[in-house]
Amino acid sequence: MNPSELPLTVKRSIEAVGLAILVMLLSYASGILSPLIIAFFLTILIFPVYSFMRKKKFPEMLAISICLLLLLIFMAGVVWFFSAQVSRLIQDFPTLRANVTLHLQSLSEWINTKTKFSTDKQLAILNEQSSKLLNFAGGYIGGVASSLTSIFVFFGLIPIYIFLFLFYRNLLLRFLFSWFDQKDHDRVKEAVGETRLIIKSYLGGLLIQIAYITILLGGALMIMGIKHALLIGVVFAILNLIPYVGALLGNIIGVLLTLTSSQELSPIITVLVTIAIVQFLDNNILMPRIVGSKVKINALTSIVGVIVGGSLAGVAGMFLSLPIIAILKVMFDRSNHFKHWGILFGDERPVASPLHWRVLRLPKKQPPKPPDPAG
Fold first, then answer.
1. What is the pLDDT of residues 108-156, one digit of tens each?
2. Cα within 13 Å of Cα(37), Cβ side
3. Model confidence pLDDT, tens digit, residues 218-266
4. How many Cα atoms within 13 Å fall on the side-chain side of residue 140?
5. Positions of the chain with pLDDT under 50
């Protein structure tokens, strides 16, 4: 029987089973797929540089080598920046310890006034939890030390994958087109072009976003005399890439860094207000002009995608979830069999309920006139 002749319920059942199998495979193979996907996205990002050099008659191997060298220089600069900021934070540890002790004493006095927990009971609880935390940290550090080889392998594979993606790009494209009938090749070509545009604009936009948030937030806090201003700016800028959850984590870390470096509460208010202003500018003015017009994913799908990506591949999965969903939406929108998944991922809300309007039960349809709100 032709697959197109299968009953709709059978098709949907096969899709559900396939989705479950895919999630299981991703959970087991995340360590293999994560560097591969990251390398694919970085290849798309640096491909314009490679294409420019090829048009200027650069030899293929030289063009690929220059692209990899530029990428490695950029990554080395990022590592240097973080190491410099963290070293400054480590130098301030005596001050941090004194400030943390002062804040804990103030918190203890407040707890004494509100509850029946005496200072001795609070110290006993803190000592107990500290011992547990130290034991956990010791085991965690041991696990991190044992996984250093995996980390080096992870980052060592990415340049190799990028080289191979660029070197075998025509072979991979030929393989892709061979999956489809010749009559569908135009749609495949359109999907490939739009996918490349989405990845390039999205990842390029994220790099621009990290740069201007670091400059705006870090520069403003530095002018106001907040210690570790650049570290707060860059940490918030990176965490802000994680949709919906990252901004909250960035605020918390910003407050913690400010608390540990100051005995006053006024710097905390300054940091929170500055973050709120920068985030308002980012969400409503800057980011929509850079990325927002290219990625049309609804909030529900974004949140679920971030959670699933984080559970499957950790932090890398959280960062990669949105561009992967955007690519899937491009493919689904151009497929005859998976258009319903494209509707689920998109942000085109029907103007009325499909329960009452038959025309809204079909993709890409709107009612001929505004419905009665009472209906």
1. 666 667 666 666 665 666 556 555 554 544 454 444 444 445 566 667 7
2. 21
3. 888 888 888 778 888 888 888 877 766 777 788 777 777 776 666 666 7
4. 6
5. 134, 136-138, 140-148, 366-375
State if pTM tops 0.70: no
